[in-house]
Write a structure and sequence with these properties.
By secondary structure, this protein is an alpha+beta fold. It has one domain: FAD/NAD(P)-binding domain (3-Layer(bba) Sandwich). It is built from nine helices and 20 strands. The chain is elongated, with a radius of gyration of 21 Å. This is FAD-binding domain-containing protein. Keywords: FAD, Flavoprotein, Monooxygenase, Oxidoreductase. Its cofactor is FAD.
Length: 383
Amino acid sequence: MDTPITISGGGIIGNYISLRLKKNNINSIIVEKSEDSELPPGGIRTLTLNQQSLSMLQNVGIDPETALISKIIVSDGEGTGRIQFSAEDIEEKNLSYVVMFNDLANMLMKAQKENTIFSNEVQSIQNFDNEIDSEVILKDGISIRTKIIAGCDGRNSNVAKIAALPGSFNEYKQTALTFVVSVKENTNENAYQVFSEKGIFALMPMPNNNNKHTVVWSINDSEIKDTDINDYVNNYLSYFESKLNLNMSVESKILNFKLSNHHLDKYINGSLVLIGDAAHSIHPLAGQGINLGFADADIFCEEVINAYNKGFSINEKALLKRYEIRRKGMNLVMLKSMDFFVNFFNNENLYLRILRNWGLTTFNKSRFIKAFFIKHASGLNKI
C-alpha cells in the first residue's frame, strides 16, 4: 500500500489534516486504533474554538453548531481584581465558539471514513531518518509505503515513542472536573473564569441550549484527597454561585481527569512529524489545547501543500523543519503563560493576592494589552 502521507490518529486534528490535504489533491491514509463507530451525539465534553480554528473547519466544509462567546470575565475569587475580555477589543463579533466534542469528532470522522484504517495502529517505522520513502508496519502486519508519518495520536503517541525525542513533562497535581449545569439567569454570551482557593472554575455556554453550560473546574489534589467528587461538587458549587451571582444546578455526571503538561524538544525526526497533543499539551484553564493543535495542523498543511504545488518533495528536511520553527516558539509561549497563571493564582500568600488584584485591575484598563493578548489567543498572530 502506497500513500504520500500516513496519519497516526483519527481524532479531530488527524481527520482535519487528511480532509484539507484531500481538497488539495494530496492523498493520505489515517490509522485509527478505535473501532469504526460514532460517538454518542451531544455528551458532556466541549471544545472552545478560536476564530482561526473555526474558519479552518469551515474552509474544508465542516460547520459545527456553536455557542457564541462575546465576553470572557476573569476574576480573583478571593479579592476584587477582574478582567473583561470583549470581542469589541479586537473589533470582532465574537471571541470564541463552544462546540460539542462528540459532534465535531463525528463530522470529521464521517468526512474521512473512506481513507481510514480502523482498529489498527502503528507498530514500527522503517527508514524514517532520511528523505527516501519510509515503511510503516501496522499491528496486523499491513505495510504502508509513505513519505511522511504525521503523529496526531495524542499524549501517548506511538509515533512520538518511535521518534524517541526528549522533552519536559510536568504533573500539576490537580484534577479537572467537567460537567453540565443549568443556569437560571441569562448569561448573554458570556464565559466566566474564577481563580480561587477552591480551584480554577470556568463556565461556558453550550450549543443549542440557552440555559445549559459546561463547567471545567481544576482543583488541587490535596483539596479533594479522600473526598468523593460528587460530594465535593455538591458542597462547593454554591461558592462559585455566590462569586458569579448565578444559580446553577448539576445536569450530568461528573467526569474527572488528572492534569499535566508536556513539550518535546523537537517536533520532527526524519520523516516523522508530531502535531498537536503528540508534541505538546497545556493546562486547560484557557481552553487553548485544541487551538494549538489546529494551529500546528494549519502550518503543517500549508508547508506540505506549498511544496506539492511547486513540484518539490514533501518530505524534504527543510520543509519539515520550517513547520517546527513556525510552531515551536508559539506553543512554548502559550505553555509558559498558562503555567505562570496556574502558579500565580494558586499561591495564597497575602502579598501575592494583593498583587494579583492590582494586576488584574491594571490589566483591565489597558485596551492595547488586552487586544494583543486576545489576538494571540484567537490565532490571529500567525507566523
